[in-house]
């Protein structure tokens, strides 16, 4: 068994002009694929070959296998990130909207927190909207760090590695973050994750 390399959930040019087809061709077609290929090469012929990606991430983390962790966690984070974006503008509704108002005061306050966290994160990493113990919060993780295997349930993520925006925005991360938060976040996906029993899982091969 191998770890899947899932296709984008929309056309490669669907997020333009905010994220270009050129960026997605490189980010998804090269970066994400390379992570998946490295995981599959590492687990071939081992006891991990029939495990889920979540189990591989947990195993690598507990065993201190940094190389496998980096590639497995990055594979998971990227698949979650593609689903966190939508070419159709969405808005929080129902239980998600109520939780945002309860825990942040308003959607605008949440957006500001997401933007501040993503823009001010030093170097490479991820900005997350998560729920834990019935409360929403914004977190960040460094490098390949992930919320996939911790105690929190991820709802959305923003990739702030430079390869997520450099082709389109050069080094101007705030322009990319503003576009993602204001135009592209998939609030329907966040609502599904809030409602689901357990966390989102990486698609099977």
Automatic annotation (TrEMBL):
InterPro entries: Mn/Fe_SOD, Mn/Fe_SOD_BS, Mn/Fe_SOD_C, Mn/Fe_SOD_N, Mn/Fe_SOD_N_sf, SOD_C_sf
EC supergroup of this enzyme: oxidoreductase
Name of the protein described by the UniProt record: Superoxide dismutase
Domain Manganese/iron superoxide dismutase C-terminal: 92-192
Protein origin, superkingdom: Bacteria
PROSITE patterns, per the entry: SOD_MN
Pfam families listed in its UniProt record: Sod_Fe_C, Sod_Fe_N
Organism whose genome encodes this protein: Sphingopyxis granuli
Job of this protein: Destroys radicals which are normally produced within the cells and which are toxic to biological systems.
Keyword Metal-binding: yes
GO molecular function: metal ion binding; superoxide dismutase activity
Reaction it catalyzes: 2 superoxide + 2 H(+) = H2O2 + O2
Family note: Belongs to the iron/manganese superoxide dismutase family.
Gene3D superfamilies named among the record's database cross-references: Fe,Mn superoxide dismutase (SOD) domain (1.10.287.990), Iron/manganese superoxide dismutase, C-terminal domain (3.55.40.20)
Residues annotated to bind Mn(2+): 27, 78, 159, 163
Enzyme Commission (EC) number: 1.15.1.1
Residues of the Manganese/iron superoxide dismutase N-terminal domain: 5-86
Record's keyword terms, sorted: Iron, Metal-binding, Oxidoreductase
